[in-house]
Write a structure and sequence with these properties.
Strand content: under 5%
Number of strands: 0
Number of domains: 1
Largest sheet: none
Radius of gyration: 16 Å
Distance between the termini: 25 Å
């Protein structure tokens, strides 16, 4: 399970740095906005992933560790959004939210890609 979670985070880091590099060609504010948007997705996801993984290994008691990890992820995401909106000026909203959404889509794309690869390997 650690390998699957780690793969998602590696792809997220790659996508975040790629988008920020492309935004750097436009403007410096767009580049740091892209990194901030990516970090708002990446950091809470990393927290949730490690918390869920640790709890599953320690005591396999069902759904509670997953729900606690996801609740912590939600709270951390909200706190980071508030911090960025209050503290960061100027903020390029398009690159900020674009990177955030792109990293959210990685949560869907990586497992689909792996499942598709396994399906064709079995043929």
């Amino acid at each position: 399970m650690v390998r699957e979670i780690g793969g998602i985070f590696v792809v997220q880091l790659f996508v975040m740095l790629l988008v920020a590099s492309l935004c750097l060609l436009i403007d410096f504010a767009a580049a740091y906005s892209a990194i901030l948007g990516g970090l708002i997705c990446f950091i809470p996801g990393l927290y949730s992933g490690f918390r869920i993984q640790r709890k599953i290994e320690d005591d396999n008691n069902g759904l509670a560790p997953v729900l606690i990890g996801e609740l912590g992820k939600l709270i951390l995401t909200i706190a980071l959004f508030i911090a960025v909106f209050v503290l960061v000026k100027p903020l390029d909203v398009v690159s900020f939210f674009g990177t955030f959404v792109a990293l959210q889509l990685v949560y869907i794309a990586v497992p689909l890609f792996k499942a598709n690869r396994l399906r064709y390997r079995r043929r």
